[in-house]
Every structure is written in structure tokens, then in C-alpha cells.
Amino acid sequence: MRIDKWLWAARFFKTRSLAATAVLGGRVHVNGERVKPSKVVHTDDVLEITKGPERRTVAVRRLADRRGSATVAQTLYAETGESRAAREQQALERRFARALGSDLGPRPTKQARRRLDALRRNRRG
Fold it and tell me: Per-residue pLDDT tens for 79-108?
């Protein structure tokens, strides 16, 4: 079975074309090698899938001819323990990280904006 079709059937990507684009972009490796979307995947192959900030390492357990439900898709692969632990650690770090711009304080009032504009005008001239 083709790697792009398997990734779509295992519900890592919403469409097969997105899966093919990810494979072409080098975001999917089979047994440590960069591959093409037409690469045939076999059971017990190890896939490294990078999707956004997440990186998963999964072992192929079964092949599926078509896309099924999410519960069926989860039986197609087994994620390694190290990969799961790293993803959970990254999720914790993202949750406890401060939001961008959270240290700037509240939004300035109209009066405060006018004072800032006056200061900027006085600096120029």
C-alpha cells in the first residue's frame, strides 16, 4: 500500500493530497529515510511523522484499503513510548507558556493613546 494512502487511512491527514504533500516536503520518513508518496509501506515499518510542532514515531501494525472510523484507524499503528512521552511533555510546555503579548498589560485608553502620540510628536520636532 502507498504511504500517502496509508497516512490518509490512518487519519494522520485529512486528505490524501495533504498526505502526499507532507511526504514530498520531507515531513514523513520510513525507517529513517525520506521517501516519495508512491513508496510501498509494509507492516512493522517505522514512520516518523512531523505535523506542525508535533513529531510522532509510529510502527505500522496493519494495512487498510480504505479510510474507516477513528477507532479502526487507531488499530493501524502503534506509537512508541518515547514519542508519546515527548508529545505529552511538549503539550505541557505549550500549556504553561505565556501567551504572546500577555506581559504588555491592558489595552491603552483613548487618553493614554493621545499622550503617547503627543510624546512621539515632540520627539520628532
Answer: 999 999 999 999 999 888 877 777 777 888
**pTM for this one?**
0.76
DSSP code for 2: B
Relative to beta strand 33-34, strand 46-51 is: unpaired
Residues sharing a CB contact under 8 Å with residue 13, sequence separation 6 or more, in sequence order: 7, 19, 22, 51
**Residues sharing a CB contact under 8 Å with residue 51, sequence separation 6 or more, in sequence order:** 12, 13, 22, 27
Q: Domains in the chain and their CATH numbers?
A: 3-124 (3.10.290.10)
> What are the CA-CA distances from residue 27 to residues 30, 35, 43, 96 (Å)?
10, 10, 20, 27
Measure the CA–CA gap between 121 and 125, rounded to whole angstroms. 7
Block residue for cell numbers 514515531:
57
Q: How far is the C-alpha of 13 from the C-alpha of 73, rounded, in Å?
A: 12
